Request: fold
Amino acid sequence: VAARPGIFVTLGLLVAAASISSIGVQYAMKLLIDAMTGGIRARSTVYAALGGFLGLVILESVLQRAAALTLGQATVSSGVGIRLDMVNYLTGHQMPFFQNQRAGSLGHRISGLAGIFGAIVHRLLREVTPPLITFAGAMLIFVTIDAAMAAILGAVFLAVTAALILLGLRGHVHHTAFAQHAGTAGGELIDLIGNIWVVKAFAARDRELTRLEGFLDEEASAQRRGWFFVEQMRGLHDLALAVLVGGTLIWAIGRWSTGAISTGDVVIISTMTFRILHGSRDLAMAVIDTSQQFSYLRETLDIIGVPQTLSDVPHAPRLRVGEGHVEMANVTFGYDASDPII
Reply:
């Protein structure tokens, strides 16, 4: 990010603008419904609200596509730089480091770094930022309707999100275990393919497949535990969502029946309540998944990013090629003494 600040700042602005536009779409729908159901049905007001609604829909779509294209450009170009930097650092290690690590495993981890970085950026800008902006916009709208309701829904959003994140962090051990097993299994697979001639020469195909199956089974078990944990959390959130949305709608309809709020207010309360509560789940899942990606990143850096045992002194001058020469005297080489190559 520090190497390309311009494109990431632009990306953040596009994501924020798209999220704000989506809130504007919901508010424009409220204005349209109020204009259509009001006591005085002025066509000019209805068409003005309709024009604003359609304009915001188009603006949101354009901003979303621009953000997606910018995100792709940023992550792809950054992924290339990350892998080159890691290979440059890796080649600075001394030979004992490579004797203790499998070449296939190191290559698999470096190749995966670009994907990890892309996943982290995608989660932060496309799944963490929009729910937060939606929550802030919903609170501003709700305050104009009923401050008490805004306070209650805001507290519920924060409580649900915090509970999901805390529960999700308890599953960090599953994500870390999966990252370790995935790196090991991927490295073993690459080494098996890279040494296929040795495997065939010693007729070790069945033995190597059995050994690889053990690594893949361990990886699958760790991944299954993580998935089951996440699905349990989603089930709890869906139950809470049904209860909270039902209660909010009952309250809103009660207020509407007394004439305290308009039909458009009921619509925007229902839609924004769904958005912020679904956003709480998406936000929590994104935070948890981001922590999982950081686990993968940390596990890779703990192996490749260890300090180099022998490195140049900072600002050391480079060796200069002199004007010497190499002279070979009485040197003979060949497979047949009667017909030497040299």
Remarks:
- Residues 205-257 form the longest helix (53 residues).
